[in-house]
Structures are given as C-alpha cells and as structure tokens.
Design goal:
- The protein has ten helices and 13 strands.
- The protein has a domain of 219 residues: 3-Layer(aba) Sandwich (Rossmann fold).
- α1 packs across α7.
- The protein is 39% helix and 16% strand.
- The chain has a seven-stranded parallel β-sheet, sandwiched between helices.
- It has 313 residues and is of the alpha/beta class.
- The chain is globular and about 55 Å long.
- The structure holds uridine-diphosphate-N-acetylglucosamine.
- Uridine-diphosphate-N-acetylglucosamine binds next to α6 and β8.
Length: 313
C-alpha cells in the first residue's frame, strides 16, 4: 500500500486498531496524530517503531496541516466521545468534534489528501420508529454529542460536494474490544462491565436494562475503514458501521456472568439523560458498496475482549 496514511486519534482505542490493520495490510507510511487527551502511546506498544507518532491537536490547524498534506487517506478518529459527558460539559466536545473536524477537512482539502474516512456515530439516529436503522432515515440527535458527530458528517459531505474532497462517513455502533479504556465514568458500557466482573463487583445498569445496542467488535470497524478507504464511487456517502444485531444491557451482563461462571446481580440506577432506547444497524449498504460483512459475533468479541482485560491490561 503506497502513500502516506494518517490516523487522527491514532493512539486511541479505535484509531490504534485502524493503525494495526494498515500495517498488517502492508502500509509503509502511517502517521498517527494524537494529543494524548484520552489516547495513550501504550496503545501502540509493539508497533510504536513502525509508525510516525505526532503529538498534535486537531484544534490547532497549523499543527496538523503539514502532517495531513499529501496524504493518500486520512482516517479521522480523534474526538471527545460520550453522550453523558457532552451533556454535562458540552463545550470541549463541541470544539473538538465540530471545529477540530472542520480543521481536518480543511487540511485535507488544502493539502490535496486523496480521501478522508470520517468516524461518525450511530447516536445521530436518535430514537427511530423502526429497527434496524437505515442510512436513509432522518437523523434525530438527542444529545450534544450526537449532534456534533452529525455536523461532522454533514461537513464531510459538503467538503465532498463543494470542494471535491473525497469523503466517506461511517456511523459506528457501540464499538468495543481490546484497548477500550474502562477507567472513566464515561467509558463504554462493556469495558466498565468487564472491569467490574473481573474485580467481582456489581455494575450499575442505568434504567431497566432493556435498552439495546448493536455492539460492534473493533476489528470489524477497522476492517470496514480499510474497505471505505479503497472502494470506488463512495465520496459523499454515509455507511453504518455496526454488527447488525441487538443486545440488551441486561443480556450483556448475563453473558459476562455466564462466561465467568459467577452470579453477581447488577445494581440499577435512574436512566441516563440523552440515552437512545434501541440501536441496531442495517448493514445492507456497507455490504453492497464496500463488500463489508462483520466477522465477529457478540459472544466471540466479548470472549476475546475479556481475555485481553484478564491478561492484566
Ligand atoms: C453512544 C453511541 C455510540 C458512540 C458512543 C460514544 C448510541 C446508540 N450509541 O453510545 O455509537 O460510539 O456514544 O460515546 O447512541 N450503561 C449502563 N451502565 C453503565 C454505562 C452505560 O447501564 O455503567 C448503559 C447506558 O445507559 C446505555 C448503554 O449502557 O444505555 C450504552 O452506554 P455507552 O456504552 O455509554 O454508549 P452509548 O451512549 O450507547
């Protein structure tokens, strides 16, 4: 794979998985842009010498423009995630997720990058009447985070149609897997649940636990990104990046208890503000246009992830 590949947020959970996939597929030049706010250099441990790690902030155009100039593909993963965090303190995520994304798009345009693949979010759908959620549905963001990610998507689309930047957006559905950081109250639910079960603690389930998510294994998301980077005629398009299935929060905790062979009832707390009730991706468009079919069942992904946390990570 010739050319230079840039991954913003490349020291993060999803970004570092994309970096690994790029190296596995033979990319010779991979630039990681990360300000290490939530990313960690240890996420790149064994591949640290194979990449060009640049500590830079997407909110600083002058820092990132020279790194993005002339790139074959830019995978834009840098963001401040979490629905809850964006409700408690909307300004930082607004600045990074909207203004930072604008900077990355502008750097891609001015630096004549070949393509940008944007990490969008399933939260943009909000509560839809029908499931699974299809790309043609009207977005109904319920939180600042959901709106910010949607604005990034629209911006990518406008940079494609107005400025001719090749841009593809992938709406990720609750990604989980090795290297997801369980240390913050804003962490993804499966990382929190896995930490809890390994420490033999009860987790807290917000609401009745019957809300559902399309949990998507990080390796599948990385594979989807590489396909989106290569597929012809996809500029300006949007694709779901999910697994296509739907698991309730209660079921997720039940599976972890079964895999660990223990019974440990969860505590229940009030529902979270801005929480979407059900989430499930229609993966037809990604299969049709990108040739992407998820490879990891929920149980397989959970087994692998649990093994990774158990190994002391
Ligand atoms: C949302 C997006 C997801 C995005 C993520 C980024 C949707 C459907 N998904 O995830 O695409 O990547 O933001 O942050 O909008 N929960 C508990 N106990 C806990 C933690 C969470 O019960 O300790 C529940 C939450 O209330 C929620 C579910 O688990 O119903 C998932 O929560 P979380 O992992 O935080 O992700 P979303 O907010 O769904």
């Amino acid at each position: 794979m010739d050319g230079r590949y840039v991954v913003t947020g490349g020291a993060g959970f999803i970004g570092s998985a994309i970096v690994r996939s790029l190296l596995r597929e033979g990319a010779r030049s991979v630039v990681v842009i990360d300000n290490l706010l939530s990313g960690r250099e240890s996420n790149l441990e064994e591949i640290r010498r194979s990449v060009d790690f640049e500590r830079a902030d997407i909110c600083e155009y002058e820092q990132i423009a020279p790194l993005i100039r002339g790139a074959a593909v830019v995978f834009h993963e840098a963001a401040i995630p979490s629905v809850t965090r964006s409700i408690e303190d909307p300004l930082p995520s607004h600045e990074v997720n909207i203004n930072g994304t604008f900077n990355v798009l502008r750097a891609a345009q001015e630096g004549k990058a070949g393509r940008i693949v944007y990490a969008a979010s399933s939260s943009a759908y909000g509560d839809t009447e029908a499931l699974p959620k299809v790309e043609t549905m009207t977005p109904r963001p319920k939180s600042p985070y959901a709106l910010q990610k949607l604005v990034g998507e629209y911006y990518a689309n406008v940079f494609s149609s107005v400025f001719g930047v090749e841009a593809v957006a992938l709406r990720y559905f609750n990604v989980y897997g090795p290297r997801q950081d369980p240390s913050s109250p804003y962490s993804g639910v499966l990382s929190l649940f896995m930490k809890a079960i390994l420490e033999r603690r009860s987790p807290t389930i917000f609401g009745d636990g019957e809300q559902s998510r399309d949990f998507t294994y990080v390796e599948d998301v990385a594979a989807l990104n590489l396909k989106a980077a290569r597929a012809p005629n996809v500029s300006g398009k949007l694709y779901n990046g999910g697994n296509g299935s739907r698991i309730t929060i209660n079921e997720a905790w039940a599976l972890l208890q079964r895999l660990e062979g223990i019974i440990l009832p969860a505590r229940y707390g009030p529902p979270r503000a801005g929480d979407v009730r059900h989430s499930q991706a229609d993966m037809t468009a990604a299969a049709r246009d990108l040739g992407h079919v998820p490879q990891f069942s929920f149980e397989e992904g959970v087994r692998r992830t649990l093994a990774w946390y158990r190994d002391g990570h």
